[in-house]
Here is the input.
Amino acid sequence: MDKILENIISEAAKRKVSDEEAFLSLVKENMKGQNKHKFPSNIILRKAYFSMVHDGKIKSSKTIEKLLVTKKMRSLSGVSIITVLTKPWPCPGKCLYCPTEADVPKSYLSSEPAVMRAILCDYDPYKQVKARLESLELEGHPTDKIELIVIGGTFSALPKDYREWFVTQCLKALNDQFPMTNDQPNSKSQFSNTSSHSGDDRTPESDSGQARMTKKGLLHSTFAEVGRNDTLGEAKIQNETASHRCVGLTLETRPDYITKGEVQWMRYLGATRVELGVQSVFDDVLETNKRGHKVSATVRATKLLKDAGFKICYHMMPGLQGSDPCKDLKMFKIIFTDARFQPDYVKIYPCVVTKGSELYDLWKAGKYAPYTDEELENLICEIKKIVPYHVRIMRLIRDIPSSEIEAGSKISNMRQNVQRKLQSEGASCKCIRCREIGLTQVKSEKSKVKSFSSVIPASPAGRPSDFIERRVEGSLSQNDQFPISNFQSISNDQKSRGTDSGQARMTLFQDEYKASGGTEYFLSYESPDRKILFALLRLRFPAETFLPELKDSAIIREVHTYGQQIKIGKKPACRPGWGDTQHKGLGKKLIKEAEKMAKESGYKKIAIISGVGVRDYYRKLGHKIDGEYMVKILT
Here is the structure.
């Protein structure tokens, strides 16, 4: 087999193979007569390739390295994502739909991929992160820009001691340079064996952080006592220049657990995005499903988080007991248009029936019926028709194995089905994920530069009534213009869209809308028809703030350049098929535009909510750390 692998690599280099179809034909050619189930994976081929390079049998080739990347979508949005789970802990909720399984976080199942990985690591955060880093590197993905997502239920209900320890261990795993082996340091501590519980005595209104960790003893912690020790602080400082930098930290919690103290604590941990289990915006539906809070909790949590600069993702659950497709569609219209809500991201988790939930008993008794596949597909199609430009639909269905679903949709490729249905209707989705470069096809054609006048269109369905869209004329100088050519999709399902942005160059758009008492601006570099998104910035002018470091400050809540992730310090090569838009200065130009807008509006300074691994980047742009934010005085 080793000889066959070397032949494949050698021939790929000799023939200068540059596309996947040609490379696959080459593999089939060399594997002729072999068992198809024994065809070498990209990981095996990568190992053979690097071994040949090391032995001097072949010269290194970026083209071959990119051909051998596994699951290319994982780094096509500009970062690599690592998801980790916290230990099982008593959940404060009693929701009808949540499954309950021993030794697994509430609402999760041991057969879910992310949970299975966590169990293999004994829920150890250090081991989880190291294992995912090694997996990403084996698959050929860059791992210097890591977006860390912590799941496992209500993060805010966990003791503060554990939460700080957990995040610290995640950062340590990113900071350490050595490969993980059995004899390397690990993250075992007093929190390693916490499977026995005595309940959570914390209430949503308490910010003391006191909680019972195990039956054997109490571990009292406060923000002052534990939150200010040097361990996490040192890990954050080290990560600013580490090989694997945490560019974003996401935490998952309930709306009723968000308080001013909790927001400050999340910022201390380094969090930049919060996923809220909203589920519904109707009090009667929340009450029927025993959610334990009202819509007012979501409204309050959204405002507190946005005024602190957080990006917000809503978990929405169509198909709950007491709802119907019409009511669910109205729910999404509300969160996309009502200034009290306006999430930046949405995860759509249609309600399904699993054993171990109270909903299972209702279903068995004939008192509940989930949506059919057709009803769900039609509903999601209608939702995608009204999503605003500034929202990203992150997920369309929960990653629950079909074997665990007793009733409800088991379709795992719902996104593709919905996309085909939209195309058949001549409709499309404007969400960020459906438009970001790297996931979108652009024809490679040179063209002349077009200019545009300010445009303020009427408000279509799905936009706030006060929504304003502008094309910013003259936003790019002649020397700073970027042609939107040479970008093609590597995803077959994306190729079927027939996206053609024309023959112009990217344009700076400025969308304005009211949200949670403030004014939001969504700045973005896009193709003139807005079908291709290259980079974005979220700017907030808050009406008020409770954090002293944000006084008299405009807030940049997000800066993101999409396309294939490029390593820090490397220059893009603009290779067709990979959407190399990073490191071309788009982020800097968006920040400069935001600073200009803030100054013109009378703000004395501008603050950026920054992942700890991005602080060094902002320092180079004149920002200094103030509390947990990167701040620049506007002169």
About this structure: The chain has a mean pLDDT of 82. The radius of gyration is 25 Å. Residues 69 and 140 are 5 Å apart (CA to CA). The chain is about 30% helix and 15% strand.
